Amino acid sequence: MEVFYVDSRAVVLEPDKWYQPKLSLVSKLRRLIDESGILDEIEKGDLVAVKTHFGDRGTTKTLRSVYIRTVVEKVIEAGGKPFVTETTGLGMIRPRCTALGRLEIAEENGYTQQTLKAPIIIADGLLGLDFVEVPIEGKYLKKVYVAKAIAEADAVVFCTHFKLHMQSGIGGSIKNVGVGCVAKPSKFDLHAKGFPRIIAERCTKCGKCVEICPVNAILNYQIVEEKCLRCTGCAEVCKEDAIQIDWLLGREVSDRIVECASGVAKVARKFAFLNFILDVTPHCDCHPYSDNSLISDIGILASKDMVSIDRASFDLYKKSQPISDLLSKERVWQWTDPESMLSYAEELGLGKQEYKLTKVE
Predict the structure, then answer these.
(1) Domain 193-247: which topology?
(2) Residues 6 or more apart in contact with residue 219 via CB below 8 angstroms
(3) Residue 157 contacts residue 69 (beta carbons within 8 Å)
(4) CA gyration radius for the chain?
(5) Which of 183, 56, 211, 86 is nearest to 127 (CA)?
(6) Are 166 and 281 in contact (CB under 8 A)?
(7) Of 37, 68, 92, 130, which cross-links 148 as Cys (Cβ 3.0–4.6 Å)?
(8) Which H/E stretch holds residue 251?
(9) pTM of the prediction?
(10) How far apart are CA 276 and CA 313, in angstroms?
């Protein structure tokens, strides 16, 4: 699969001219979208979700809003009706866990309807419980709960801040699909197994878990699994640590991300992918802080194949010279296996690891 890219360097070839807007990465992004043809399938009147990550309160290295605005303008130019979207985080009490909190954070981080030139819609609803249930046949998962607005859109354009990730090794387009486009029940399934459990010996019957449960799934201080949507709100408010969750770590998490991505791919009609290899931090933008960049900026990649673009992005990352001693390039995170994630995504038919890299000038 062909992967197109533009270099982030602004190499001045005409030093006597100071006004050279074509050197801007924003200008290059426009040319990248045009020459890659990633938006060619968008038809007049299509509802187009532009999926990005707003970060958390305190995050400072999310994608700049001007890049998202540029993508929105190109969608409009193609005849689509764009909206910028994100989903809520796992949990119930932090700002990023509800649609209202997500919108507040988006505004603080520079994403508004005015800066983006499109409305912002939180794809999984007010509490992150608006979804379409999609059956799959994965090693671990049999159902994926796709955010409703993603399932209803005619096309999705993914604007992904490529970086490292403490669970999947790399945070690229596959993660943006598999984590960023699912509702809370699937976010739980990515990070944990089974259901939350109340440990009777620790429970003081204070009632806080009963109050916060959005679906009345706690009866006589026991969790009714048939009703539980695994939002983890109960665990958040329990001061006695009486609610146990079996959290996962490592390769199984990345496999589950891939399986969720396969569920999203079953209901979404048209995909386009942009990976921004800029400000590559050691961790996801869901953290309430941003660490130093590990490498110099590389540029932006475009493709219609989520596996090819992530493979190419990871290869470019590995070939780059580190500028930080936070993590060695070879290590990524000790317990993760991004190679396995890419291979499993290819196995499930989400794309191909083989790619041809074409530079757009």
Answers:
(1) Alpha-Beta Plaits (3.30.70)
(2) none
(3) no
(4) 21
(5) 183
(6) no
(7) 130
(8) helix 251-267
(9) 0.95
(10) 9
Contact 64, 187 (CB under 8 A): no
CATH class of this structure's domain 2-189+249-359 = alpha beta
Q: Which CB contacts under 8 angstroms, 24+ apart, belong to 69-74?
A: 69/115, 69/116, 69/117, 70/26, 70/29, 70/30, 70/33, 71/29, 71/33, 71/157, 71/159, 71/274, 72/116, 72/117, 72/118, 73/117, 74/30, 74/33, 74/34, 74/39
Amino acid (one-letter) located at 260:
C
State the residue for tokens 């891939």: 258
Q: Regarding beta strands 222-223 and 2-7, do their DSSP bridges make them parallel or antiparallel, or are they unpaired?
A: unpaired
Start-end of CATH 3.30.70.20 domains in the chain: 193-247
pLDDT tens across 245-292, in order?
999 988 899 999 999 999 999 998 899 999 999 999 988 999 999 988
Tokens of 111: 């994403």
Give the whole-angstrom CA distance, residue 351 versus residue 346. Answer: 5
164 within 8 A of 283, measured Cβ to Cβ: yes
CB atoms within 10 A of CB 116: 24
Tokens of 341: 């994630």
Half-sphere exposure at residue 261, Cβ-oriented, CA atoms within 13 angstroms: 29
How far is 101 from 107, CA to CA, in rounded Å?
Answer: 10
Q: Are 179 and 114 in contact (CB under 8 A)?
A: no
Token pair for residue 70? Answer: 């540029």
- Write out the residue limits of the CATH 3.40.50.11440 domain(s) in the chain: 2-189+249-359
Task: Please name the residues in contact with 287: beta carbons below 8 A apart, sequence gap of 6 or more.
Answer: 56, 59
Q: Are 309 and 172 in contact (CB under 8 A)?
A: yes
